Amino acid sequence: MAKTRRLGMLLVLIFLVLASKGEDDFSYCESMVRKWAKSSAGNRNKADKLTLKDFLFFLHVPRTGGRTYYSCFLKKLYANTDECPRSYDKLRFDPRETNCRLLATHDDYSVMSKLPKDKTSMITILRNPIDRVFSTYEFSVEVAARFLVHPNLTSATQMSKNMKSRSRGVSTLDIWPWKYLVPWMREDLFTRRDARKHTEVRSIKGKQNPYDMHEFVMPLHTFVDDPMAHEIIHNGATFQLAGLTNNSFLTEAPKIRRCIRRHPNLDHYVLEVAKGRLDHMLYIGLTEDHKESATIFANMVGSQVLSQSAALSSLGEEVTSNKTGTNSFQDPEDGGENQDQRSTGDNTLGEDAPSSDAETTDENMTVENLMEAYETCTSTLRKSQYKRRTISLRKIAPAYFSKEARLQVPQTVIQKMLLLNSLDVDLYKHAQQLFMEQAKHLMQIGQPKSEPQNKYRLFEMETQEARYNLSMTWKVLSLISTTLLFVFVGVFVTTKRRNSKIKV
Ligand SMILES: *[C@@H]1O[C@H](CO)[C@@H](O)[C@H](O)[C@H]1NC(C)=O
Ligand SMILES: *[C@@H]1O[C@H](CO)[C@@H](O)[C@H](O)[C@H]1NC(C)=O
Ligand SMILES: *[C@@H]1O[C@H](CO)[C@@H](O)[C@H](O)[C@H]1NC(C)=O
Ligand SMILES: *[C@@H]1O[C@H](CO)[C@@H](O)[C@H](O)[C@H]1NC(C)=O
């Protein structure tokens, strides 16, 4: 009897220790995340954010069409020698060692620790999170499917290793997040192909949802649910801006990530930091509004880069392009990141870089001919990407991704994607607001220098205003529902705690 009582007491003791440890864990996490958020808030003034500083950092969120900006804008504005070496090699990356003025990378905000912060202007492009997830899925499949020319996985991986060592360029397979997503998807595609050899595949007739053809490719809903997607895709834009991706330079990033995973109610700190970073950007583009975004870019960033370069060259510095420069982006295996233009009817352009993108900067470049050059460049890119994509997706036929086919994805899957990306949804709304302000500012200062026939005219303010108001209403609604949720959770937790106390 005494024995049982002692055992009982021991169990109670263990329970208490565990419980208090859980509490400690939360308060430990909270104080750590809060401390990080505080130190990340920064106290830079926003007043001069619209002035281009010496250094430009393009924070390239994957699948936002940033590759187009890189190839069709930045490559035309900056000489190869102006571009910092890519930071895929973290250990060696130090832009201060070179005379570079431009860094375009998938690295997250934490790379700022390597940059002269006060002299750096930052730009980025954001995209509707649902489309970004779709696009990430489609692109992972597309790049992985290119390997299906090989008889087996061993031969495919061997081949890509050989390609890598032979070329000194950077391949998609070296770049975060593709260096994880593509090999994962590649293995999956080979497994499914092998399985098809041994089983009778049902015949596909009529309209089938290509996002759910498990015989041929990992279904979208499986993809979205995989730990891999949780680790690097969902809320990816927010984490990238916060500098907390799993590719972060920040030493405490893994700890903070673990805490946020364990205590999701701490994630608002991450969102606030990300929003604050957006507030300080020189420029924000929106993938959906790509024409307006390009116009604003040319007028707000392009024009300033051009005058900066002119000033530098009048100082006698070498700003003309050096064609033999070392920074051209060669993608031996797959040519970079293709985008889902055309076949999905997206407004976005590719992330693909054909080898011809290392064009020289034109001494006489103006904002007008920058826009012209951009248009020509994007249409070339679009064509080559469409071709690559079609060829690649043929290997997983009959599955074929397109914008129309996306409509066949059940609402439950879409809802799940929304839920898993709620921070990014919020961030995107914030970006839309800032985008509006940018456009207004540009109109106020009398830009763009647009002749009446200018086809890149700024979009009609009214429709945008309407959308903006709509999202404001939505915001209020979501605020109310979030509050209700918190109250509900609070009540739930207290009652639960009370109950468990009674039990003890
Ligand atoms: C994979 O394919 C290569 C090339 O055809 C072949 O030499 C090798 O034996 C295959 N390996 C396996 C495990 O089937
Ligand atoms: C990032 O995530 C991938 C995929 O889960 C994983 O393989 C990799 O080790 C992670 N990297 C770090 C630095 O944690
Ligand atoms: C161009 O780059 C090459 C190789 O990096 C270098 O040897 C040469 O001096 C550079 N030329 C100019 C004009 O900067
Ligand atoms: C740039 O403009 C100058 C003077 O307007 C002209 O002489 C020169 O040929 C132009 N250069 C190019 C590359 O168009």
Automatic annotation (TrEMBL):
It is a single-pass membrane protein. Residues 317-364 are annotated as: Disordered. The chain crosses the membrane at residues 472-493. It comes from the Eukaryota. Its main location: membrane. Residues 319-330 have a biased composition (Polar residues). It is found in: Membrane. InterPro entries: Heparan_SO4-6-sulfoTrfase, P-loop_NTPase. Keywords: Glycoprotein, Membrane, Signal, Transferase, Transmembrane, Transmembrane helix. One of its GO terms (molecular function) is heparan sulfate 6-sulfotransferase activity. GO terms for cellular component: membrane. Residues 1-19 form the signal peptide. This is Sulfotransferase.
